[in-house]
Amino acid sequence: MNRFKHIFVVGVVSLITHSAIAQEGEDLFAVLETTTEAPELLSDQMLITQKLLWGERGLLRVAGIAKLNKDQREWELKLRRKLLVAHQVIGYVTLAGMIAQGIIGSQLYNGNYRLYETHENLGKAVTASYFTGAGLSLFSPPPLINKKVKGWSSMKAHKVLATVHLSAMIATNVLAEEDKKLHRAAAYTAFGSYAAAMIVLKF
Ligand code: HEM
Ligand code: HEM
How far is residue 83's CA from residue 141's CA, in Å, rounded to a whole number? Predict the structure, then answer.
């Protein structure tokens, strides 16, 4: 698959990822957000991935699994808390895996092919924990209130960086069998933006 196709694939992936994660009216998908009839139970601001499941006409509502009422929302907010704690715990595990994968990867890159299988297997584990961590926040029940924040916030920076590392993680896996140089570049981009997405939360 030639280089331009690579760039095209990564470009499309980042666009989709950005629209899924970005929020607070900073992108063209803000027009999709509709005002809700039951404002006290659901904020009209939520991630598109959360709206898919938990929105007023989300899959879980339409399927009758999560009827929109006060008790249900209280249960969802408790679930959200647990999922976002797990999100962070798995986040740290993934970071440790990425560091190990980077150390092994650079040795493999310099010709130490005895590490090939270790790298490949650890790669699968890191990718699995990465997307599990992502899923825990992207599909968690939405908060009760989600105010529009003017200008930058650490959470906004966290989400924008998530757009970068999610695209880079997809590219790292797509390129692993294609081009080791691009694979390495994508992996370093994923690691750098991932670490930054954690550091920004400290401010
Ligand atoms: C797979 C990588 C990650 C992605 C895609 C991601 C994305 C997100 C998103 C979209 C939210 C907002 C969820 C919402 O408000 O409904 C969020 C919240 C958060 N994330 Fe991440 N994140 C990632 C990794 C991490 C890591 C590694 C940490 C730190 C250990 C972290 C810490 C947090 C915290 C503290 C929150 C706020 C939780 C709250 O509102 O209580 N995230 N993340
Ligand atoms: C999250 C990070 C990473 C993941 C998930 C990952 C995953 C993988 C996987 C699954 C393969 C095997 C592909 C196949 O089936 O042939 C692979 C190969 C490889 N990776 Fe990584 N990798 C990561 C980071 C890195 C880094 C940071 C480097 C270099 C510094 C690196 C260097 C290599 C090399 C040299 C190969 C062998 C390419 C070849 O000769 O075919 N990887 N990686």
Answer: 9
